[in-house]
Amino acid sequence: MAENKPTATVAKSATSVQPKKEGNAISWIAPVACIVAGYSIWRFLLGNPSNFERPNVGGNAFWPLHEGPHNALVRMYEGGIIVPLLIGLFLMVIVFAIERALTIGKATGKGSNAEFVRKVQYHLANKNIQAALQECDKQKGSVGNVMKAGLRKYEEMTTNTELDTDQKILAIQKEVEEATALELPMLEKNLVFLSTITSLATLVALLGTVMGMIRSFASLGEEGGSAAASKLAVGISEALYNTALGIGTSAVALVFYNVYTTRIDSITYGIDESGFTLTQSFASLYK
User: Fold this and answer.
1) Are residues 132 and 120 in contact, defined by beta-carbon separation less than 8 angstroms?
2) Which of 20, 36, 68, 128 has its CA 20 to 30 A from that of 108?
3) Region for 150 from its dihedrals, namely left if φ exceeds 0, alpha if ψ lies in -120 to 50, beta otherwise
4) Which run of H or E residues covers position 64?
5) What is the pTM of this model?
6) Do residues 193 and 92 lie in contact, with contact meaning Cβ atoms separated by under 8 Å?
């Protein structure tokens, strides 16, 4: 009888990729802190009684009514209770823009990713895996991390005698995919705040504008003559402050969102190129 030889299968070796244990407390602390800061700026900075000719003519401690603002910036206080929310949204844009800039800047690594990949290709062509790993340590960033994880599996597969070439390449590809799956969420985290604020700020501003117009026309119905017309003009001007602040916040959020998604796309391309480099190098050198 013919002897049945067991076929080699892909070794289930432990992956060198380890999950990143990073908290995301900023995702719930920042919104609350920004809204509180927005109210504080509106209530105590813009709403300082010294900024008005006739302060404290009514209202309550939470929303005192002042009249006669000294300048156009202070008039934004009279835009109503929606204004502190819009200020808070603008502060959120600034906070998350800075947080993403630091994170993506760190993920980009040191130097050009394209030059880094070329150096790794050169070392692999000379079968100098240790030199390639040293380049990863110098480069750092997401591309360097993925390349390093793939290189460790690459090095392991060069001494593996149980698997054929195709199975070894599959093992390298799997290692790269696992490393990529851990890196990409870190890059895209918190971008949802910028994309949401892009739409939300405009809608909140529209709500503030409508509320201001309702108050203006209500005062027009209660009073008559030139005084009512004057109050209507002032009310419309105050309502439009909501629109201006909301549109400005949306525009800033949209710019940052597009800038960061472009940078993430560039990093993702570098990660894809690193995986292709490893598999092609192994296929050509270790047939």
Assistant:
1) yes
2) 128
3) alpha
4) strand 64-69
5) 0.84
6) yes
When divided into structural domains, the chain yields a total of: 1
Q: Is residue 111 left, alpha or beta, with left meaning phi > 0 and alpha meaning psi from -120 to 50?
A: left
Average pLDDT of 112-139? 93
Nearest 5°: the CA angle 188, 193, 194 is: 85
- Nearest 5°: the CA angle 38, 208, 89 is 30
**Structural domain for 186, as ranges:** 26-285
User: Does residue 16 belong to any structural domain of this protein?
Assistant: no
DSSP 3-state assignment of 13?
A: coil
Q: Is residue 20 part of a domain?
A: no
- Bridge partners of 58? 65
**Structure token pair of residue 132:** 């390639």
Q: Which amino acid is at 118?
A: R
Reported as a pLDDT band with limits 50, 70 and 90, residue 5 is very low
Over 50: is that where the pLDDT of 3 sits? no
**pLDDT for 224-269, tens place per residue?**
556 666 677 777 877 888 999 999 999 999 999 999 999 999 999 9
Structure tokens given for 85? 């929310």
Q: What is the separation of C-alpha 36 from the centre of its chain, rounded to a whole number of angstroms? A: 22
Cβ atoms 249, 197 nearer than 8 A: yes
Residue 44 vs residues 30, 49, 77, 95, 178: alpha-carbon distances, Å:
20, 9, 10, 21, 51
The Cα–Cα gap between 239 and 209 comes to 4
Torsion of CA 239, 240, 241, 247, to 10 degrees: 130
Question: Do the domain assignments include residue 14?
Answer: no
Structure tokens at 158: 């060069």
